[in-house]
Amino acid sequence: TVPASDAVVKTTCPYCGVGCGVLASPDGQGGAGIAGDTEHPANFGRLCSKGSALGETLGFEDRLLHPIVDGARVSWEGALGTVAGGLKKIAEQHGPDSIAFYLSGQLLTEDYYVANKLAKGFLGTPHVDTNSRLCMSSAVAAHRRAFGSDTVPGCYEDLDEADLLVLVGSNTAWCHPILYRRMADAKAKRGTTIVTIDPRRTQTGEEADLHLGLKPGSDTALFSGLLVHLAGQGAVDRAYVAEHTAGFDAALERALTIAPTIAATAAATGLSEADVGRFFALFTRTRRVVTCFSQGVNQSAQGTDKGNAIINCHLATGRIGQPGMGPFSLTGQPNAMGGREVGGLANMLAAHMHFDNHEVDKVRRFWSAPNIITGEGMKAVAMFEAIARGKIKALWVMGTNPLVSMPRADEIRAAIAGLDLYVVSEVLATSDTARATAKKTVLLPALAWGEKDGTVTNSERRISRQRRFLKAPGAARADWAIMSDVAKRLGHGAAFAYTSAAQIFREHAALSAFENDGTRDFDIGGLADLSDRAYDATAPVQWPLTKRGPDPRKGRARMFADGRFYTFDKRARFVAVQPPALAQPATAEHPLILNTGRVRDHWHTMTRTGKSQRLSAHRAVPFVEIHPDDAARYRLTEGGFARVTTANSSAILEVTISDGVRPGDIFAPMHWSDMTASNGRVVALVRGTPDPVSGQPELKATPAAMEPV
Ligand code: SF4
């Protein structure tokens, strides 16, 4: 049921991983007033520019309102029959692993759960990946290497209680604005020192106590140097390291080969010795340190090592799992964490289970799955390459726009054209991805934010409800319902007889607790018996919520406080990281290094924020930032236009001259698409070499050339 027009509905912002609570007041005309939820512990009533403009982005303009097959409107019956029939035929002819799913951190956990169950348990294809691969999969890999599990150790209160906040590869002021407000409050109230580490001097860097504008890709040198410095200063917590960790000596030995001194660290990072020394001294003498890391770390061909280099320094000092200290991955998307929980990444199974025989069998038995997969599938970059090679014949994309956001997007458009079956579950009829076509193309209208019900998990492991406050437009349906109907047509009706999001959530919670004796971190078994009413009323809560604890409905703010981790011996692992090296260094033909990112007021490919004139006014056209010296060298003028060319593609962008970028670097935001700016797609310029451990593609360092147009 849709709430009455005078109701105030508590829900969660659909943009970033901060996961702010929102109060929506529907007006009965398809719109709603929006305010921050003062009771939500992520934001206590605050909203940033994007969240507060949510009411301006509602409406049916450009919505996909009916199923479409090969350009013609059809009934749901016809569309679902086409999808089920096509998948069945392709699985029979080419095997189930010729089918792939590309999901999204925008999906609700319940949608994500059903997609994984359908693909990995019933269709029998391991090739399920998500745009979260582009967002935080290196943080996942770093967590798993260090902790034996994908566990974020801390909580937002740690940001309030830290004396030193180190922000690595994060323009927090723009990309996680409400968390940044908490950091600024901590600075005002307790004198917290803020250090930023980023090749660009962003707004966050402008306001920091110390900004380290290091060379692109040199983070592992900086944190290797810090590990050496901590050891040299006697700041390593030897008792903690001996009792709770393994691998310290090897990690330190490797760090000594990378950055043995402050001078060597400065040389490797392009920083001054004075700045390196100042940062090292701050970190050494301050016990309450939180190191937040985000896309500047993750979106790298060495992203996993960068994450582990940071975690190494926290393990060495025992600064983890305690108030005001710990490494903290800032998640990009609203439900990237929920996707990890259900196994939405190709290298995860479900409920944080891995692909060992024991856990595969657990999931098989829990689902009564006839076609359980037994190993990892292809990660996003490899998946789209396999489509181009013809190995993947059917692709189902849900809630994401890879034609704009994936590296080498031009090649992806060509690859999709060769698919036998291309299914897109979408809100918009006009996204670049919805406009692409294959031999058989099916567009399925999905519910949008405000129309659907479910849960999301934010960066601090907090599960919150997204609630419905608007009517479904046209024939749009929930993603879980669409997939369940396809499953029924494939003969799996009993396993997909879902009638509500609450029912799916209970199953997901029960799976997390299934034969879990405490060896798995993700356990929300305490929520497995929620009634529909209790599910609807669920207040934001942090996992784990285990039935083994004293109160199964009470979450836990911090993990690892007892120094016990999820490895077989309960010890955390130091990782001996590789020396920094760009996957693609600059060349004579492409002498600049292109860094991509975001602006303050847009989200991803602008399919929602682009509807708000207020948000679009911040930066109206796609642009590129360049240092004044380079602008002079390449005869570029402020406000003029330039062609940015890489080995993959070219784009025409407005020139912004700024000494916030290093000489030799350029920066361009990733939001614009062919739908919003001709020749403005920036990620299409990027080659996207994947990290060898996580598979996350490099989006921060692509050789490029510039010329005026
Ligand atoms: Fe939404 Fe993130 Fe802004 Fe909060 S900080 S209102 S979650 S975009």
Automatic annotation (TrEMBL):
Its cofactor is [4Fe-4S] cluster; Mo-bis(molybdopterin guanine dinucleotide). Transmembrane segments: none annotated. Residues 6-62 form the 4Fe-4S Mo/W bis-MGD-type domain. Keywords: 4Fe-4S, Iron, Iron-sulfur, Metal-binding, Molybdenum, Nitrate assimilation, Oxidoreductase. It comes from the Bacteria. Belongs to the prokaryotic molybdopterin-containing oxidoreductase family. NasA/NapA/NarB subfamily. This is Nitrate reductase.
